[in-house]
Amino acid sequence: MRNTLLFLLCSAAMLGGCALAPQVNVAAFDKGDLARPAMQFDADRLESSFADHIYFSKEGASGGRSVGGGGCGCN
């Protein structure tokens, strides 16, 4: 009984610690660095456009990220 209670108490403490998320506050002077084009997921528009072209040519569908549509992939 004592081991079970100890196990449940430790399990509850560990699971309770997982529920806490750190608060991320970005200072005003750091927001300019985060807004730079190099910090975006697709910072190079030409490379992103090329990757999209290859994707829809291989998959036979146009768009896929924000535009719906379909096609044979012959463009």
Task: Explain what you see.
This protein is mostly helical. It has a domain at 45-75. It contains three helices and no strands. The longest helix is centred in the N-terminal third of the chain and has 17 residues, at 2-18. It is elongated and about 65 Å long.
Spans of at least 5 consecutive residues with low confidence: none
What characterizes the major β-sheet? none
Radius of gyration: 24 Å
Structural class: mainly alpha
Query: Oligomeric form of this entry?
Result: single chain
Report mean pLDDT, rounded to a whole number: 74
Element-level helix/strand string: HHH
Number of helices: 3
Indicate the proportion of strand residues: under 5%
Task: Pick out its properties.
75 residues
Topology of this protein?
Elements: H1 2-18, H2 28-34, H3 45-59
Brief sketch in words of this structure:
With 75 residues, the protein is mainly alpha-helical.
